[in-house]
Amino acid sequence: MKSISVYAVDSFANEIFKGNPAGVCILNEELEDGTMQLIAKELKFSETAFIMAFKDNIYSIRWFTPEYEVDICGHATLAASHVLLNEIKIPFGNILYSGNKGIIKACKEDNEEISLDFQIDEPETNIPFNYEEIAKSLAIDKYLNVFCGKLTGKLVFELKNEEEIRAVKPNFDAMKDIRVEGLKGVGITANSDNEYDFVTRYFNPWAGVNEDYVTGSVHTLLAKYWSSKKDKNFLKAKQLSPREGDVSLHILDNGRVKLSGRAVLVLKGEMFI
């Protein structure tokens, strides 16, 4: 029997029980994929990050939902960074993660937020599948636009305003019956006229997560979309889930985007396997 250190962190939040909870497992040696999948299923977070040190501030990172491994996860990466920088207190101001989609840089900012440097996703309006059944499962009759991420495979509907976003009540059983190759989740978004530039919600019942609380990866797509619409490179977003959460976005000149937010430790312990 061996033990691994396990943390629960609320990401994109200023206080516990807000934002998006994630699991973080610190590995001293590699685990089999099946074991990591069982751990993620046991912890029941929307995503659990498994990280292991390579050298100095360089770590490998992988993300698992309760159902399967995913290519990228923003909130669990933020959670892992919070653990390394604020709990383990590694002697570095930044972290380099080696993940399935390349290198991700995390950095602690002066305002105590942690920023994550991701490749920006391009919105594609020429969608190669019938998305009307998905709109129907969301009970969406009208929408202003629909697009899909070239990198993330996430489908997003733009609605008229925040009220319409809040009013959407998906039929998750109907969504699960829809099978589209390459589809990695569905978001809805709308312009915001208050302190935020836009709002969003995100659903992925295919991954065992009906509604995700705060979704970093979909904001790599929304960053490009709303930056183009609003002609600005600094954006502030709110995800209107039951727990809500704030995401700051900075579109860089090199085809990447910085997602920033705060995180709060909820619990830590040892798992015996």
Automatic annotation (TrEMBL):
Alphabetically, the GO molecular function entries are: isomerase activity
Claim: Acetylation is one of the keywords in the record: no
Which keywords does this chain's UniProt record carry? Answer: Isomerase
UniProt entry tagged with the keyword Acetylation: no
Specify the domain of life of the species encoding this protein: Bacteria
- In which family does this protein belong, per the annotation? Belongs to the PhzF family.
Protein's name in the database: Isomerase
